[in-house]
Amino acid sequence: LTLLVAVTFPFFADLLGFFGGLAFAPNSFFVSLEVT
To answer: What is the chain's pLDDT, residue by residue, as a tens digit (36 residues)?
Structure first.
């Protein structure tokens, strides 16, 4: 079980970071547009 978690956790963290960046990038882009 520990090995399974150790293998899948970085994969899900990378996936979460990818989708999180996909979701937050347009927001930060529009915010930077309004600020300038």
So the answer is: 788 878 888 888 887 777 777 777 776 777 777 776
